Amino acid sequence: MALIVQKYGGTSVGDVERIRGVAERVKRYVDEGHEVVVVVSAMSGETNRLVSMGRDIAGSRGSAREMDVLTASGEQVTVSLLSLGLLSIGVQAKSFLADQIAIKTDDVHGKARIQEIDTKALRAALDAGCVPVVAGFQGVNDLGEITTLGRGGSDTSAVALAAALKADECEICTDVDGVYTTDPRIVESARRLTHITFEEMLELASLGSKVLHPRSVEFAGRYRVPLRVMSTFQDGPGTLITTEKDDMEQPLVSGIAHAIDEAKITIAGVPDLPGIASKILGPIGAANIEVDMILQNTGADGLTDFTFTVKRQDYDAAQKILQAISRDINAREISGDNEIAKVSIVGVGMRSHAGVATKMFDCLASESINIQMISTSEIKISVVIAERYVELAVRALHNVFELQKLPE
Ligand code: ADP
Ligand code: ASP
Ligand code: MG
Fold this sequence. Notes:
By secondary structure, this protein is α/β, with parallel strands linked by helices.
């Protein structure tokens, strides 16, 4: 008998029929004698619908507290429906919202971090032979306010629960049967990986592969939670996220990620003086806008250009802030582009091989794709390119690094 935390994503609970299917799937595990805790997302499309209603009425920077109350409601629907479905086929089940458990978070609405989970109520339900069905994505802060963990955050709810309950495994059940070398919706020949290291998965997730929420991978790595991505709709081993083994032959590149929700801003002709980066980025950070890549050119004639990228949703707000401080920083011009994308190759094998970057740049050049920015770390190389080339770039790179040939 094992204790398993299973998370079902939006497509898996997309309508009543699918929720019935999930209930049957959970029943199979219960019948095999396992203890199961289920975490669910909102029905697919529901969180988008809620967000867009909120934005319609308040604009993109409406009250974060109210947006959380609104968006957290999607998961309240699915926990109750799945519990009803389980009860109707003879499985004892009980729904839990975050504040009923409690899943304690900090108070950063919209991207709260889980700090602590009280497992008493869940343990009591399990001991009574009941399947707890927990609302993903939501938490509660010290003041009892509802918070949410950021888009895709139900994965993190599941891993955090698995860590707190010391579960034997956390299964992320979704609409693909594992983690692929790249998004299988873009590259048909993408290969399912039987396993991938935490380190690589964290990079892929952070760089845009939405199959796992980045923080869920971070959590799983830190608390050693065995984490598996698998299909809700078909049986199979899925992909296990593992710690690196020294004796494993590592491919140069294990996966390719892309993100199209990016934008870049350039401040041209600013004085090349100490303190300029902090004068530009200070107010951006103070407005809670996350900056990703940063590039400062070598100065000429005492002037320099400064470019950085932000999430596309923050583009307008970031530009407004810079316009407001442009006189203060003596900038000649502020310009921007919100039709850019980031494409990244990831692999622990890069550590011990030179020439990976050249191969990537040559590949993009041969497709006449202009690279606008580059950033590298030990196990990844990212480039910013025009959004319209993103699929072409991902396909070409997949081909050049022969990811379709990775052994099973
Ligand atoms: P859920 O609603 O179950 O959380 P998501 O839509 O968040 O599902 O994540 C699953 C989707 O992630 C897949 O349908 C796939 O298109 C996309 N995806 C992106 N990159 C990858 C990858 N490397 N491997 C598998 N799926 C990926
Ligand atoms: N329902 C939330 C979202 O769509 C959380 C999740 O699906 O993981 O982002
Ligand atoms: Mg998801």
